[in-house]
Amino acid sequence: MPLARIDLSSTASPQLKQTVSDVVYDAMTAVANVPAHDKFQVITTHAADELVFPREGYLGIDYSAGIIFIQVTWNAGRSTEVKKAFYRKIADDLHAKAGVRKQDVVINLVDVSPENWSFGNGEMQYAPK
């Protein structure tokens, strides 16, 4: 059960927000083996002064006001190769489908163990056996 948090500028169009949502979900199912319908996302827009990033760039990457932060919390266990492919698919697809600069796609993955989720009812659905 991934939970994606997507943060972008308040100037983002509804179409861009939908595209980012769809691209992240598609990468989860196509690359990271997430089951269909396992789509939990929080999309938040921010004023320009609420998206903080190094204006002079970082690691040789320059950013613009169109920066998009994507954080995905999911169950641990995916390989480095899967994670690299996941990053690449999101950046490539956002560029192809919405014209987003690849430099402006910042992704962070948070690996957790399955018992750290409750899908509702105050229960631990993935409790250790």
Fraction of residues in helix: 25-40%
Mean pLDDT: 96
Measured between the Cα atoms of the first and last residue, the distance is: 18 Å
Q: Give the number of DSSP strands.
A: 4
* CATH class bucket of the domain at 3-63 and 85-113: Alpha Beta
Radius of gyration: 15 Å
Describe the sheet with the most strands: 4 strands, mixed
**Low-confidence region ranges:** none
CATH-defined topology of the domain at 3-63 and 85-113: Macrophage Migration Inhibitory Factor
Helix and strand composition category: alpha/beta
Order of helices and strands: EHEEHE
Strand order of the largest sheet: 2-1-3-4
Second CATH tier, the architecture of the domain at 3-63 and 85-113 = 2-Layer Sandwich
CATH superfamily of the domain at 3-63 and 85-113: Macrophage Migration Inhibitory Factor
How would you describe this structure to a colleague?
This protein has helices at 14-30, 80-98, and strands at residues 3-9, 40-46, 68-75, 105-112. It is α/β, with parallel strands linked by helices and 129 residues long. It has a domain at 3-63 and 85-113: Macrophage Migration Inhibitory Factor, CATH 3.30.429. A four-stranded mixed sheet has the order 2-1-3-4, covered by helices on one side. The model has no long low-confidence stretch (mean pLDDT 96).
